[in-house]
Every structure is written in structure tokens, then in C-alpha cells.
Amino acid sequence: MSAPETDPQPSEFGLEPEYVYVARSGQLPDGYVRRFYPRGLELCLARNHGTAYAVSNTCTHMACLLSAGKVVEDGIGCSCHGSIFDLDTGEAIYPPATKPIATYPVAEVEGKLFVRVTEQDALEGAARKRELEEARRRAASS
């Protein structure tokens, strides 16, 4: 009987301890979007033109999930109302969203994807998501 397989550790690849293994590179083909929860933080990972990106998974317009959207030429598109965010900077580049989304460093090493998520990132991300969802509920009830 073999020992259970464990996730690759960032130190094995010369990465800072804040990096968290999220997936094998093949699980994120070009043009695809996936949702992951490193350290409990809900992130959207996308690959565009061969580069992997990690951003917060919540659109700043109405708190829709960006992982339900798609990669477009300019970035990541929200499926709810068509907002587009730059994957490098998080900037809202097409309305109705006007506020940026958070971005997180990605390291792709030996066929493995790691995202840098600090404890502070996880706390701030959870608070930001609650705030956006509350704003969405208020807008829906008006």
C-alpha cells in the first residue's frame, strides 16, 4: 500500500512559502477559466495566450462569478453584464464595472501552477466578497 499523495510544496521549486499549489498546468488549457480556493480564497484562474493568471473570482459590478465568464482578447469577461477586466492589472477595461479586481502572482513550474496567497490576501478577499454580495442584495431589492 502506498502513502497518500500530497500536494507539491513551493519550497521544492524555489518558491516563497506564500505560494500555494492549485493545479497541474494541463488543467488550465489556453482560453479556459477555472475556479480554485487556495487558502480558502476564491480565485479565478485563466490562461490567455499561454500565460496563466489568477484574479479574484467576483466581478466588482454585481458580484457575479468571473469563473463563469470567459477569456476574451483583452482579458476576462464577466458572463452577467459583459464587464471585461485586464488579467495583468485587474483594471476594469469595459463597463459596466468601474472598479478593478484583485490580481495574484502565478508561478508555473515543471507543469504545476502555484498562486501567491498570503493570509492577509485571504482575509481581505473574504471581506471584499461579503461587501460585493451585500451590495448585490441591496441592488436587487431596490
Automatic annotation (TrEMBL):
Q: Spell out the Pfam families in the cross-references.
A: Rieske
Taking every annotated instance into account, which residue ranges of this chain make up the domain Rieske?
A: 20-115
- Tell whether Iron is among the UniProt keywords: yes
**UniProt cross-references to SUPFAM superfamilies, sorted A to Z:** ISP domain
Keyword annotations for this protein? 2Fe-2S, Iron, Iron-sulfur, Metal-binding
Q: Which domain of life is it from?
A: Bacteria
Q: Which Gene3D superfamilies match?
A: Rieske [2Fe-2S] iron-sulphur domain
PANTHER family with a match to the protein in the record: 3-PHENYLPROPIONATE_CINNAMIC ACID DIOXYGENASE FERREDOXIN SUBUNIT, FERREDOXIN-RELATED
Name of the protein described by the UniProt record: Rieske 2Fe-2S domain-containing protein
Q: Which organism is it from?
A: Jatrophihabitans cynanchi
